[in-house]
């Protein structure tokens, strides 16, 4: 048998992954959900025809979105994750020693359910007592906190683990959302969002970068290599009210990153800093 | 019209690029040569069904193979490039202020000819008076220098700009070639070869790394993001008899990298060093 899944990543470029079987194909209230078992990457989660992650290299995206912002914050106790129903970013965040509470606001409960069923190694921390799962719209959620939330309800770090800026995630790339998110952060809070490919989505990176720069005292972009994402290089945009996200906060000076050695397949203190060192063509985008 | 070029990058993963036209399709004595005009990447050179480079992002590979080794060498006057008939690495090497002579040993003269015709911006320095083009087998060439070459004939830097380790380039990934290359270098020489994808070709990287480590005083691996190559992340293995390839040699302390600002789209002094900072899963390969 030779069967392939094709993803059109731009109108003019795509990837193909050879599949062993289709493990799931359903339509939730929000999107088309497919899980393939593949020869190259193990099981792969596909939402609205775009690969979200593959078992074999999900560690890159989840470690880099989860760990970089958290380890640049002095004491990230309260975390908000918008999207990320698969649980990969939750799993990474819980490696930070300060984390006391994570709110996971995922609009599509179905993603959480299928992840628990098919990706137990990714969803493994969704039942942790520190994690509260809210199946609702992340945009409405931060607007509510921003407009009426008490200081205690605000977050140390907000992470946006969204799909591409079409369909359910479209609003997560708009100024009103970014402003409400900033208002839902404490005075030393850090915001980080996935912001697509530096090769294919330069306008998006430029536009988001401008807004984040206006809203936050410090803004920055970092990158990581993810084979199943368009172009293989992915960007994250960070806005910070106080801390320099490029460096690990000194509160971790005595922290033993080695305790996670087998667990951390991409992230390390050296990668933390070097992921902010950008090739000239990416620096040009941000000018 | 909707037509696509497909490349099977592994047996179970591939890419597709939408084409506007087929500009050339010929068989040389060594390989199948195809040039497509594409919507996403401009013109693309394909050898034996594998993308060699795309106009729109060739700068990454050519800058990183050409500039990293040269700027870690104190005074790289004599350069040998094996393969690279397109001229991209020659173009980059000539940005180094010490370079006096480049021997380009490309087995397939046809690649040089089509590059001059279809990629004038890449082949632009092939007629430079410092460049000598030899259409012959790079393996035989270094064996000859190694066995009977005078000290003057030896090189400061040898760069291997090869196709994948199947077909004409197979011998360029073997120990006898690496040893002959080392013997064709001066006492402070640097050797660098492209060594495929850290996600897909871990055995190759491990095997080449072991041999280079045995032959050279210093060995190292660095990476760069190339969207049209398998997994989007590419590796280069460097062996050095004296210099630390991870750092720019102090002979460039007063060198103005800014003079190439518009020219250098990927490489910078900061990228030079950070490209050697490897994610944990790549460090594991090299253990």
Detailed description of the structure:
The structure is a homodimer of 287-residue chains. Chain A is 27% helix and 31% strand. With 287 residues, chain A is α/β, with parallel strands linked by helices. In chain A, the strands form 2 sheets. A 7-stranded mixed sheet of chain A has the order 8-7-6-9-10-12-11, sandwiched between helices. In chain A, strands 1-2-3-4-5 form a 5-stranded antiparallel sheet, with no helix packed on it. In chain A, α4 crosses α5 and α5 (175-183) runs parallel beside α6. The longest helix of chain A has 15 residues, at 58-72. Chain A is globular, with a radius of gyration of 18 Å. The model of chain A has no long low-confidence stretch (mean pLDDT 96). The interface between A and B is large, with 41 and 42 residues. β2 (13-27) of chain A pairs antiparallel with β2 of chain B, so a sheet runs across the interface.
Short description:
The structure is a homodimer of 287-residue chains. Chain A is α/β, with parallel strands linked by helices.
SSE diagram, text form:
The structure is a homodimer of 287-residue chains.
Chain A: E1 3-10, E2 13-27, E3 32-38, E4 42-47, E5 50-54, H1 58-72, E6 78-83, H2 88-93, E7 101-105, H3 109-118, E8 131-134, H4 138-148, E9 155-161, H5 175-183, E10 185-194, H6 202-215, E11 218-225, E12 233-240, H7 269-274, H8 280-286
Parallel strand pairs in A: 6-7, 6-9, 7-8, 9-10
Antiparallel strand pairs in A: 1-2, 2-3, 3-4, 4-5, 10-12, 11-12
């Amino acid at each position: 048998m030779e069967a392939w899944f094709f993803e059109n990543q731009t109108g003019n470029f795509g990837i193909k992954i050879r599949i062993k079987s289709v493990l799931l194909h359903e339509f939730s209230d929000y999107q088309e959900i497919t899980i393939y078992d593949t020869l190259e990457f193990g099981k792969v989660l596909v939402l609205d025809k775009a690969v979200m992650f593959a078992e074999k290299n999900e560690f890159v995206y989840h470690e880099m979105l989860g760990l970089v912002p958290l380890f640049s914050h002095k004491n990230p106790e309260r975390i908000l994750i918008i999207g990320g129903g698969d649980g990969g970013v939750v799993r990474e965040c819980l490696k930070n020693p300060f984390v006391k509470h994570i709110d996971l606001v995922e609009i599509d409960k179905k993603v959480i359910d299928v992840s628990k069923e098919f990706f137990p190694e990714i969803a493994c921390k969704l039942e942790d007592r520190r994690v509260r799962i809210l199946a609702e719209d992340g945009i409405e959620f931060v607007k509510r906190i921003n407009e009426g939330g008490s200081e205690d309800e605000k977050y140390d770090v907000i992470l946006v683990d969204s799909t591409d800026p079409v369909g359910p995630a479209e609003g997560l790339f708009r100024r009103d959302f970014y402003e409400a998110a900033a208002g839902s952060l404490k005075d030393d809070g850090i915001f980080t969002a996935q912001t697509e490919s530096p090769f294919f989505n330069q306008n998006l990176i430029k536009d988001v970068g401008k807004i984040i720069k206006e809203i936050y005292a410090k803004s920055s972009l970092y990158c990581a290599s993810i084979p199943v994402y368009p172009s293989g290089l992915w960007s994250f945009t960070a806005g910070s009210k106080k801390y320099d996200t490029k460096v690990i906060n000194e509160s971790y000076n005595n922290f033993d990153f080695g305790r996670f050695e087998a667990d951390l397949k991409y992230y390390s203190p050296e990668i933390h800093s070097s992921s902010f060192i950008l090739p000239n063509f990416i620096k040009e985008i941000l000018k």
